[in-house]
Amino acid sequence: MLRQQQNETVTQTGTGTPMGNMFRRYWLPALLAEELPANDCPPVRVKLLSERLVAFRDSLGRYGLIDEFCAHRGVSLWFGRNEECGLRCPYHGWKFDVAGQCIDVPSEPAESGFARKIKLKSYPLVERGGILWTYLGPPDHTPPLPEWEFAMVPAEQRFVSKRFQESNWLQAMEGGIDSSHVSWLHRDNINKDPLFKGAQGNKYNMADMKPVFEVVESPGGLYIGARRNAEDGKYYWRITQWVMPSFTMIPPRGGHTVHGHFWIPIDDENCWAWSYDFHPTRRITDAEREAMKAGKGIHVLNMPGTYRPVANKDNDYLINREAQRRGDTYSGVEGIAMQDASLQESMGPIVDRTMENLVSTDNGIIMARHRLMRAAKMLAEKDVTPPGVELAHQRVRSAAVVLPQDQPFKDAAREALVTKPGTALATV
Question: What is the pLDDT of residues 191-217, one digit of tens each?
Answer without folding.
Answer: 899 999 999 999 998 889 888 999 999
